[in-house]
TrEMBL record, chains A, B:
Lineage: Bacteria, Bacillati, Actinomycetota, Actinomycetes, Kitasatosporales
Range of residues in the leader sequence: none
Positions of the UniProt region annotated as Disordered: 1-31
Xref: PROSITE patterns: HTH_MARR_2
Full protein name: MarR family transcriptional regulator
DNA sequence: GCCATATCTTTTACGAGTGAAACACCTGTT
DNA sequence: AACAGGTGTTTCACTCGTAAAAGATATGGC
């Protein structure tokens, strides 16, 4: 609540927060080479020029990208009857190389324990993962990939990645590296700011 | 389907697609200053060094950022009893400045018509939007903000934006601009590649 | 040894989104 | 005028995720 009210609406046009005003303005319409968010920002500037829309240019774009990607990105997975979340569980087990508990899987895949339980049930019924009780602590369940699960991940991973590579291929290689680096910086900050409550 | 299989798994280690292998490798563990995705990439490199994890560094990070943001970003909204999606509808009506149909709202907010119908029902019950039938074409419904709805958006928008600004403040200003620009480039590509089917 | 407390997993109740079907209406053709 | 086909909105059945409660087990103080 502290800094949240820092940018009052009567900040005054021109000195709005720190972001430069959007370039010119095709009357709120959309210019060639612009993405959706640029148009949105211009519309806001037309009706509320006092407000600093800077954050939208990052957060809005991340949300749009994530939405677009999630709608289409999973084509190779869907083909195998999996969704992103299920593949995420399988992939986590594969890349760590050892058994994990449902709690660890939940933390690793950013979802609730309940969601993991559901997914494990389905993946178990399909013979892709196995559960066994921990001998030391019988509250704990240990989950591992079956041979079939491992084979499926290994087959799907390159397909999925090359599909993703195709999706990204419209951006020049050097800029992809820049983008990855900057997203990494942002993610570190977000983890610190928003992820701490879990520690 | 065309270019999607371009990067075959037997691309050969060292020449994997275009991404450099992850730096050294703390045994799959996590180094200081690294984000979660960097650790994930290293784990993959340890068990499947033949695979080009480049796309993960962008898509994985975007997904993580979006997940983290969505969990916490909405603090000021939640305080007003709204969620992101509802605020998105109100904001769209506010920034365009005129009445919109449910279909237009669906396209604008990236969601299904059914979802928009539900939201409009709730927002209508709370007195934030009004529907009226189009006089020309009676299939069409026109939605507009009530005075209360407009006042709520105008009050919430600066709060929400300065909250978002605080979340982003850990990244240096110049880098935020770079990030916004690169995300814009990516978004243009994604819109072209993944958004075309709707046209 | 026993109890209070904490931790891990699963179950339950519910909210939100989606695709497909249903419904209402328009428009051009015959 | 009637009809076929198209478009816009809503309803329906379903999936998926979550928070909170329940169930099972460990652990430390007495």
């Amino acid at each position: 609540m502290t800094a949240a009210n820092a940018a009052d609406p009567d900040d005054g046009p021109g000195g709005a927060g720190g972001g430069a005003p959007p370039p010119a303005a095709p009357a709120g319409g959309r210019a060639a080479g612009d993405d959706i968010v640029a148009g949105v920002v211009r519309q806001w500037y037309a009706v509320r020029p006092d407000v600093d829309t800077g954050p939208m240019e990052i957060i809005g774009r991340i949300n749009r990208c994530a939405a677009l990607l999630q709608q289409a990105e999973d084509a190779p997975l869907r083909h195998a009857g999996l969704n992103r979340a299920e593949f995420d569980v399988l992939g986590t087990l594969r890349r760590t190389g050892h058994e994990l508990t449902p709690g660890e899987l939940a933390r690793e895949t950013f979802s609730s324990g309940a969601a993991v339980t559901k997914r494990l049930k389905q993946l178990g019924e399909r013979g892709l993962v196995e559960r066994r009780a921990d001998t030391r602590d019988r509250r704990v369940v240990l989950v591992r990939l079956t041979d079939a699960g491992r084979a499926l991940v290994d087959a799907l991973l390159p397909e999925q990645l090359s599909y993703e590579a195709a999706v990204l291929s419209g951006v020049e290689a050097g800029r992809r590296d820049d983008l990855a680096r900057l997203l990494g910086e942002l993610l570190v900050q977000l983890e610190g700011r928003l992820g701490l409550p879990r520690g």
